[in-house]
């Protein structure tokens, strides 16, 4: 006896739909069988957007095209990571060949999914010894589980900007080297109005301020986020509790979380002329190397200097270290001209003169060992501080993870609760955070 | 018998033609429904049981995505709470405010056109532009609203920068753009038969009595419409919350920066924002689909509940 029709039709329709869905869910895969000497047009997506930056990138491309007359490069700027991620996943003829990202956070995701092609075969084929070319922390931040799917294309380094005039007025002779000195100086530099409101805060460690995400200050402790098996170990590392305790002490010493947060809401936007360090609402400030150029361009009405961020008292010998991140470049998995694309990636990331020229133009830290010591590099002492931080063996970048920077987001959320005093038992909170990070990582794996 | 055997195929043909004609007339809707509702719904259910990062082939993972969303994702709770809070408070206030404004502008005699235009115009402002304007107006440091409150000696809140005030600030923004509801209520109010008001007046009924016994029974279907559509819209609330949080945080967003929605303290994080974040920032498509289905089920449940309750709201003849 035949089954009633609906019973056949519904499963058939669902099975058909499932087949259709499964079939649609596979973007195109590219190839590395192209001849890099044959005429080709490459598409290059990058994130730089303002006129000076775009000119610097276009100049780099012009230099490349002169060296490789058979390769034309069509560059598209102002591309966010979200846009690039979505485009590479969707595939299609207009997807880029060469891609870059302003952060190392997503490298693990790019490598583990194969979205960015493995560069090791290209490095080997063209005789580039990556260990000799790139600084160790940057190299580590651009690979995941042995797969080098990206290479550093300029670095970002974080250090301390300080108001020399305010220091002089407070009788402080040099920037702080340890966390205790930072706390002492921050208190001395904090000035209030007659009614008790803040006029100037010595140093604001609150995690929501501009670039103050917890991972950046935490770098001063040299943390190890994961053990060898990739399991989160923030609770096991005593440095984590020390870091949160120190951050809370820094806040409390200057008036507490509530008042400092209220003061923060009176700041202007980070990249505007109302930036709190530029308007002297902050006497010390953690920021990237690009801030120096901005302060110069804005003709800051005070003398300022740069220094490495202070380190914990019991790690005073590591002073000079800092947090590293930066722009990375790679080849899209869907590119059908991967050998030609490699020529561009190699030029942008490993050619010393090119890296120096781009670093000088963008006021970013160069990301090769040779470029870091190049005499052609910008000699500005404020900028030199960041070069030294990059070269410091204790400086660290975030470890790549399978799901991009999701563990950093989890840490950030937890840190907001800690600084607001919502976490009563720090140890228990950190154990829960580890469980959360592991669950998120497991969820992103097959 | 012979007549029956000869007419049966003709009858079947006639019925088939009739069915084809009906299907022909229905086809635009059927195609639209299948493409824009049926297929996405089946796809969402399918992917909710798959691990799929939009690069590799989907792999079956059973209930793992569901377990992750419902038990392991700490942001699910705050996002659901915020969404439900907005559904209850924002929808209720929008209906009350829309009805109040509708009543006001239908009563006004002089300059009625001006007032109707003035109340309707904000609705035409694009959501992003309106949100940017509100974040500027309510800026704790530089916004004119706090200057005025300060001058009047009223302690000014931090609005979008305070987790306790962020959602009420979004409600204020939504009330500013009440024009759509005002127009709908105005049409309904102008449709209430005048003779019923006259009869009520003859009975000596006051203003409240007229509203309670004449206006309200006439406009309840419209109120129900406003509530149901408001609930569905608010469950999809995304743009304003995202823009307000991003702007109020003061952090520059550029290439390489991932927007973490919900500033401050996840107080403006809604379920649709979490779906976007899971699906298109973390590329955790399976979990995003599971979360979408939770939202879908919730919207269906609330809407069904409201529709079942309609008997108590609608006039007797409905």
Write a structural description.
The complex is a heterodimer of chains A (446) and B (318). Chain A is α/β, with parallel strands linked by helices and 446 residues long. Chain A is built from 19 helices and 10 strands. In chain A, strands 1, 2, 3, 4, 5, 6, 7, 8, 9 and 10 form a 10-stranded mixed β-sheet that branches. In chain A, a hairpin with a 5-residue loop joins strand 5 and strand 6 (198-203). Chain A is globular. Chain A starts with a helix and ends with a helix. Chain B is mostly helical. Chain B has helices at residues 2-48, 64-72, 76-107, 112-124, 127-137, 144-151, 166-176, 179-190, 194-202, 207-235, 239-249, 271-281, 285-308, 310-313; strands spanning 50-51, 59-60. Chain B has a two-stranded antiparallel sheet. In chain B, strand 1 (50-51) and strand 2 (59-60) form a beta hairpin. Chain B is flat. The mean pLDDT of chain B is 89. Chains A and B meet through helix 1, helix 3, helix 18 and helix 19 of A and helix 1 and helix 2 of B.
For the structure shown, list the relevant keywords.
heterodimer; A: alpha/beta; 10-stranded mixed beta sheet; B: 318 residues; mainly alpha; two-stranded antiparallel sheet; 73% helix; 1% strand; flat
